[in-house]
Each structure stands twice: as structure tokens, then as C-alpha cells.
């Protein structure tokens, strides 16, 4: 049983990125100055030469590396963690899923404020003691 990974299908990656950008083959074809059939053939190709890939990447608004390393799993992970829903007023609500517990952060903030407040009190006590010492000398 072989554990070798399959090479990435560049044409399929181009197709998926184009679809995610809500761009039709015709629009990409116009941006590249080729026919829609050329784009269809390109998306069926496993490999694309670097010069052509650079031009396609520019038209799609991504880097050539993004096309080469495209992963649907990563896209779905991003979509799952940051999604947009429409509320009943017609406006969009964007939810960026927290990667931390907000209550824990609130408690950390409270503890930090408590420490800073204690340091402030100590500094004020030292200042008062110094002033009292100076007044006693006079």
C-alpha cells in the first residue's frame, strides 16, 4: 500500500478559486484574453506552466502559491470559523468565532487590574512615607 501523496491538480484548484470568487469561465477568459474553451481545458489540466499560472493568479486576485497550495479543507475551516448571516432586518451580522473563552479573558483582565491597583497603592504609600519623612526634617 502506497502512502505517497497525489500531486495537486492545479486546474481543479484554479476552478475552485474561480468559483469561490464568484467568477465565470467567460470572465476569466476575458481577463486573460483567451476563449472560454481555453479556460475549460486549462481547468482540466493537472499542471500549468509558471508564466500562465502567474497571469491566472493575477486575474483571480491571488498568488501563484495560493493556487498551488489551495486546500478546500482550509477554506471550509475558515468559513466554519468566520461566517456571515443575515438577520431579519436585512443587514448582515458577521460572526468571527472566538478561539478563546471570553470569560477567561475577562477574569485575566480583572486579575491584571487588581495587581496594577495594588502596585499603585504601594507606590502611593511610599510617596506618603517619603513626604512625611521630609516634613519631619523641617
Task: Tell me about this structure.
With 138 residues, this protein is mainly α. The chain folds into 2 domains: 10-96, lambda repressor-like DNA-binding domains (434 Repressor (Amino-terminal Domain)); 99-138. The chain is built from 7 helices and 2 strands. A two-stranded antiparallel sheet has the order 1-2. The longest helix is centred in the last third of the chain and has 36 residues, at 102-137. The radius of gyration is 30 Å and the shape is rod-shaped. The mean pLDDT is 81.
Brief write-up:
This is Helix-turn-helix domain-containing protein. It is built from seven helices and two strands, in the order ααααααββα.
Amino acid at each position: 500500500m502506497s502512502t505517497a501523496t497525489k500531486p495537486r491538480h492545479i486546474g481543479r484548484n484554479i476552478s475552485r478559486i474561480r468559483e469561490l470568487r464568484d467568477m465565470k469561465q467567460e470572465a476569466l477568459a476575458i481577463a486573460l484574453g483567451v476563449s472560454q474553451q481555453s479556460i475549460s481545458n486549462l481547468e482540466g489540466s493537472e499542471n500549468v506552466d509558471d508564466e500562465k499560472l502567474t497571469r491566472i493568479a493575477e486575474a483571480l486576485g491571488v498568488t501563484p502559491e495560493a493556487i498551488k497550495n489551495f486546500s478546500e479543507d482550509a477554506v471550509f475551516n475558515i468559513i466554519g470559523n468566520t461566517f456571515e448571516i443575515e438577520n431579519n432586518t436585512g443587514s448582515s451580522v458577521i460572526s468571527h468565532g472566538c478561539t478563546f473563552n471570553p470569560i477567561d479573558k475577562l477574569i485575566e483582565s480583572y486579575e491584571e487590574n487588581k495587581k496594577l491597583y495594588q502596585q499603585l497603592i504601594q507606590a502611593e504609600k511610599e510617596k506618603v512615607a517619603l513626604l512625611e519623612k521630609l516634613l519631619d526634617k523641617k
